[in-house]
Design goal:
The chain has 9 helices and no strands. The protein is mostly helical. Among the domains are: 88 residues; 54 residues. Helix 6 packs across helix 9.
Length: 224
């Protein structure tokens, strides 16, 4: 299996995982669907769109397996090139698409806390008189007030963490290049995630949001 075959196969598997998650999300209400993932702006896919995507993915997997068995190394490379050119040249900005859904780790169940046994109430044999309570109140009033909490300096406006790894630097460079070619901000994560050796689309979104000011400054385009 060539490197292009491996990349295309991994991409198709990510798409298939995403489509299966969307099939499960069909049972959710609109409010719950909005909370289940950190979605980009889009129209919620309907059942027939999800079913159509699943059918076409299965057909693509079959074709890819046939080409791999016949040692056709150019098929996967052509798929990668077509996907890139379609997003770069042929598609317009639309909101009707199936965003990539990532499997979310399930939080472990929290065991209920047991109520602590109540301590028995012991009544004092010698009740305090009003005269005995006055010195205690005077002593409490003379205690120095607690100092106010030290304010924590807020981060400087516009400051963004520097790119510290290769993946972040590649995503920033890709975003600057795509914006300079005329692509819109909501399209960047999907385009970049399809390139070789790039992070998943959800991670690309995090990097883009974190470094948006830097990206737009380098691309010389104002924020919309």
């Amino acid at each position: 299996m060539s490197a292009a075959d491996q990349r295309v196969a991994e991409l198709v598997e990510r798409w298939m995982t995403s489509v299966e998650l969307h099939a499960r999300y069909l049972a959710l209400s609109d409010a719950d669907y909005a909370k289940v993932q950190d979605w980009p702006k889009h129209q919620r896919p309907s059942r027939w769109v999800v079913d159509l995507a699943r059918t076409r993915l299965l057909e693509l997997k079959r074709l890819l397996a046939e080409r791999q068995s016949s040692r056709d190394a150019g098929f996967a490379e052509a798929l990668e090139l077509m996907a890139f050119l379609t997003n770069l040249l042929g598609s317009e900005h639309v909101e009707r698409f199936i965003p990539l859904a990532q499997p979310q780790p399930e939080a472990p169940p929290v065991p209920p806390k047991e109520a602590a046994p109540a301590e028995p109430k012991v009544e004092s044999r010698t009740p305090r008189t009003a005269a005995a309570q006055k010195p205690a109140r005077r002593a409490a009033s003379k205690r120095p007030a607690a100092p106010p909490p030290t304010p924590v300096p807020a981060p400087m406006a516009g400051a963004t963490p520097a790119a510290t790894d290769k993946a972040t630097a590649m995503v920033i460079a890709d975003a600057v290049r795509l914006i300079s070619w005329g692509r819109e901000w909501p399209q960047l994560a999907g385009l970049i995630a399809r390139l070789a050796d790039r992070p998943a689309e959800a991670e690309v979104w995090k990097i883009l949001r974190q470094h948006r000011s830097e990206i737009e400054a380098r691309a010389r385009r104002p924020r919309d």
